[in-house]
Each structure stands twice: as C-alpha cells, then as structure tokens.
Amino acid sequence: MSRKCEVCGKGQVSGNNVSHSNRHTRRKWNANIQTVKVDEKGTVSRKNVCTRCIRSNKVNRAI
User: Fold this and answer.
1) The Cα angle at residue 12 between residues 9 and 15, in degrees rounded to 5
2) pLDDT tens profile 13-45
3) 3 Cβ neighbours under 8 A, 6+ residues apart
4) Alpha carbon 37 to chain centroid distance?
5) Which residues of 20-59 are buried (b: 16+ CB within 10 A; e: fewer)?
6) Are 5 and 11 in contact (CB under 8 A)?
7) pLDDT tens digits, residue range 43-59?
8) Which CATH number fits domain 1-63: 3.90.76.10, 2.30.170.40, 1.10.150.110, 2.30.30.240?
C-alpha cells in the first residue's frame, strides 16, 4: 500500500529522533492512509486516502 493520499497528496515525512544525549538518528512519520471505496459518477473504485480527507468529506464514500 502506498503511503500517499490520492486526494491531497499528503505522504511520508522524515526527520530526526533526538535522544537525551542529543544523538540524532533518522526516522519517518507516516501519514494515516486508509483504503476506502470511493463512488465517482456511479463507478466504485478503491483509493488510498488520508483520514483528514475522509473526515472533511473530500471523498464520496461508496456503501
């Protein structure tokens, strides 16, 4: 499953873990991507969508 939203394009972000002794190691934050059934003009398909887009009704979910 891809880690990118097909609606808004939100994806993985990288940065550093910083310990108490100030050592830096690379890490990543993944977007909360869910696979949902989307109804587009009567056609039902599956899309990878972030939860922010689901909550704000940017996708028309199929039943």
Assistant:
1) 135
2) 999 999 999 999 999 999 999 999 999 889 999
3) 11, 12, 30, 31, 33
4) 15
5) eeeeeeeeeeebebeebebeeeeeeeebbbbeebbeeeeb
6) yes
7) 999 999 999 999 999 99
8) 2.30.170.40
